[in-house]
Amino acid sequence: MAGSMEWIMRLDGTNLPGKSLIGGKAHSIARLMALGLRVPPAFVVTTEAHAAFLATGEFPDGLVEELERAIAWLEESTGRVFGGASAPLLVSVRSGAAISMPGMMDTILNVGMNDQTQTALAAESGDAAFAQDTHRRFAQLYGNVVLKADAKGFDSASDPQVWRDMIHSATGKTLPDDPREQLLGAVTAVFESWNARRARRYREHQKIPHDLGTAVTVQAMVFGNLDERSGTGVLFSRNPSTGEDQPFGEYLGQAQGEDVVSGEFTPKPLATMAEIVPEAFNDLMSASKTLERAERDVQDIEFTVERGTLYLLQARSAKLAPQAAVRTAVEMANEGLIDRRTAICRIPSDRIRILMSPVIPEAARVAAAQLAKGEGACPGVGIGMVVSGSDEAERLGNEGIAVVLARPTTSPHDVHGMIAATAVITEEGGSTSHAAVVSRALGKPCVVGCGQGRLSALNGQTVTVDGQTGQIWAGALEVVVPDEVSDGMLAQLTEWAEQLAPIRIISADGAKGLDALDLAAIEGAEESENLPEILAGNQTAKGAAGGAIATDEGVRAAIDAGLEFIVADPRLPSLLAAVQANVEPVP
User: How confident is the model over 169-187, as pLDDT tens digits?
Assistant: First the structure.
């Protein structure tokens, strides 16, 4: 890839540009390579190219030519030919924002596939069924994502012309045969998915700026669907639901990555991988330790095994359930991997509020009727009326009605319903499926894999969902509220935060007799944006209580106003907010 490139960067591990330019996925690939781990070669179209595209609706000048040169570099790196009649190169085209947005934007696999490359793959692999299955996967994904076909029922036994006809019938558009045309269409689709409804709603909920933009990572394909010693999976270096210091993940043999995250297939435990491809499993365990030590955080690793050889596709800081976030932060600080301030800054105060939300006492469980059971994917308790559609969940949620979203499996199109729901339950999928990953990112109780057809009968019923045990109970069960003293991890976090916070956080019982401004008696104080002006007018009180003072914004306003203390119950969320007020979280 001779000559300078304005819009594209080669990923070879020799440099590590910032995530704001190349996105988290490409940054991860470069980091994996720098650590000497096995990664398929890749290049990235930068966020600057995306910004130029959004400004005009067209590729910036020179990008098409740079894509040609970058593909030529991939061909040289792999010894394969894009669209070639022998040793064909296929690529994946993936989004990559600076801040992880799991499942919110588009991915297209097996780009470069056509009748000619199918014949070449069949000859090279000695497996015509594998080549046909790969062609089917490309046609279905490209047709639905890029051409918006919304077509289902693509059968690997069908002639490829049948798939092309289905797409044309649904859209009036033709599935491109030319690999370069496919690549341009895929890059365009990823660019445009930044402003998809699901992506915008997720950013708004997570307070991610809309102007960050996405990069596009183009990576040589490796094939988890090749043979019995091939597969794909996801590994967490520690348990993402509980925080237990044990590798946790799932593996799906003879599959590609989309099969796992889609939730349409239920993967097997990692022990299955250890039995089928032990060498690749051992390499994965070693890579997990290397990455966690290097990044000083729990790692979420996507991988593919091709004929017994492990390839890492990306690694990122894992989205953890609130309980797991607390445990891993405290234990990593105790292990010396991170300092105490970093541990506190890794846990948003809203996660502590979720963690201190109600739990089901044992007596209530014994007396309740269990309606269904699956795998607990994100702890917490959600109570509400079961609804089967995301639009309905959003509508009812906006009316103040508590709902539980029940789906066969979720997709990015369900994010608005997941945000509105008190809990998410699915019939299919495992703990690394879309429903599980996004629920952990949102802090929503989640149960997956309840069994095909098991949830449809619950529609309209009020249920209680326990995301820890995976149980779904009839009715609204009694709940109790945990406290920050009896839980060892929360108590440890409280002690550290008290030492580091620039303001004291006092419970209501401890504040009796203290000089505190009663914000509950002041009009407008329930809105955090009014607090700076209200506190600026305070001439005598040393502290404040009530109103919005216990919110993150309220804590910052109290610190800025020079107060000595605020009153909050529970104390820990406000303590964390106080420590984090003037500290940039360590990645």
Answer: 999 999 999 999 999 999 9
Domains along the chain?
A: 1-220 (3.30.1490.20), 222-319 (3.30.470.20), 362-474 (3.50.30.10), 488-580 (no CATH)
Beta bridge partners of 9: 44
Residues 6+ apart with CB under 8 A from 219: 29, 40, 41, 42, 91, 92, 94, 313
The three-point CA angle 520-521-523 to 5° equals: 90
Other CB atoms within a 10 A radius of the CB of residue 269 amount to 13
Please state at what angle helix 160-171 crosses helix 128-145, rounded to 10 degrees: 10
At 583 the pLDDT is 60
Cis (ω within 30 of 0) for the bond into 179? no
User: Pairing mode, if any, of strands 462-466 and 565-567?
Assistant: unpaired
DSSP string, 24-91: HHHHHHHHHHHTT-----EEEE-HHHHHHHHHHSSPPTTHHHHHHHHHHHHHHHHT-EET-SSSEE-E
Query: Which strands, in side-by-side order, build the sheet including 309-317?
Result: 268-269, 248-253, 231-236, 299-306, 309-317
Distances (CA, A) of 117 to 85, 86, 179, 226, 381: 6, 7, 10, 15, 50
Q: Token digits for 125?
A: 């692999």
Tokens linked to 76: 């040289």
Consecutive 10-residue averages of pLDDT for the chain (587 residues) = 78 87 93 95 96 94 96 96 94 90 85 96 92 93 92 83 93 95 96 90 86 94 90 94 92 82 76 95 97 95 95 92 92 95 90 80 88 91 95 95 95 91 94 86 90 93 93 92 82 94 92 88 87 89 91 93 92 93 56
What CA–CA distances, in Å, run from 399 to 328, 406, 413, 420?
A: 37, 19, 21, 10
* Tokens 């019995």 sit on residue: 228
Check residue 543 and give its pLDDT.
93
Distance CA 59, CA 188 (A): 8
Helix (H, G, I), strand (E, B) or coil at 240: coil
Asked if 577 and 555 touch (Cβ cutoff 8 Å), the reply is yes
What are the strands, taking DSSP E only, across 137-223? Answer: 214-220
Q: Where are the beta strands (DSSP E) in 299-380?
A: 299-306, 309-317, 370-373, 375-378
Measured CA to CA in angstroms, residue 327 lies from 320, 446, 457, 467, 470 at distances of 10, 19, 37, 17, 20
Rg (CA), the chain: 25
For 111-161, how does the pLDDT look when each residue is reduced to its tens digit (9 = 90+)?
A: 999 999 999 999 999 999 999 999 999 999 999 999 999 877 788 888 999
Both tokens of residue 244? 């237990």
pTM of the model: 0.76
CA separation (Å) from 407 to 211, 399, 418, 454? 32, 21, 10, 10
Q: Which helix (H) or strand (E) holds 418?
A: helix 415-420
Distance CA 226, CA 72 (A): 25
User: Rounded distance, CA 271 to CA 258, Å?
Assistant: 21
Percent of the chain whose predicted confidence (pLDDT) is above 90: 68
Nearest CA to 234 out of 304, 296, 298 is that of: 304
Mean pLDDT of the chain: 91
